[in-house]
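Our consortium's second objective concerns turning raw sequence data into structural hypotheses that experimental partners can test. To show how far this objective has progressed, the report includes one record in full. It was chosen at random from the queue rather than selected for favorable results. The single chain below, 279 residues long, was entered without modification.
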Amino acid sequence: MEYQSKTLMLKTIKIYYKQSNAVDKIIVLLILVFLVLLILQVAQVDYSFLRLYPEAKSLLKKPWTLLSYAGVHEHFIPLFTNCLILYYFGQLFLDFFKEKQLILYLLLSVVVGGLVYVLVYSVSAAKATYLSGLTVGITGLMAGMLTKIPSYNINLRFIGAVRIWFIFAIWLLLAGLINLGTNTPAVASLLAGALTGFVLTRFFNEGKGLLRMFDTPAKKTPLKVYKNPNQKTKLSHRSQKNIQDEIDRILDKINKTGYDSLTAEEKQFLFNQSKTNGN
């Protein structure tokens, strides 16, 4: 009986893993890491080697901290807040971008924010402790969405429709005030994360440089066809252009009147395209 229960649990976990998207997996990972750190804290085991400290010497000795700090949540409230914002903005992000782009936004914002944190401390006399948590990465993700759909309205319970830029401004203000004075370079890291998200969205919109590999699905090996190859190619390009035109039209509509103004067919079309591009 016990063996069957364990088997059923493993199957359930596998099914959840296959059906969940990148946002769900990241949230689960953050919670698991938090629980592990909690156990280490109770056992009085030092895990400071995962935090990002402001001294350049520390970064040179422990370069992995430029990424590992993002997974370190030492208190429940920051973990809960980050997971909540990541869930809502992450799901919204996947309506317009792919999962690999979401990972890119988070990781690049974390790295750039971490480097700016160390740099600002090195060139100023600002007070600093250490950097931890995914706040910088989430800030980059939010800034990317703000750049993509600046007029988007998010419906909040008991409040109603709120502009995405207003939510982002409140988030940035609160996160900045928490660190101001005691960990001032962290404020600069938040701004660096926001700038990273802004730049990434602009580059993706214009399809520039190396970022194309994250924006364009991998090309499949073409089959050898000898019957009307030119005609088939033209039809394929035409079909792709029609799809992109429809996506652009829907995005323009969202920017003007909000997501809720879309018809059921438009929402389904946008959802289907996000799933297709994410594969």
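The partners drew two points from this record. Residues 216-227, 231-235 have pLDDT under 50 and may be disordered. The longest strand covers residues 153-156. Both points have been shared with the crystallography group to help prioritize constructs.
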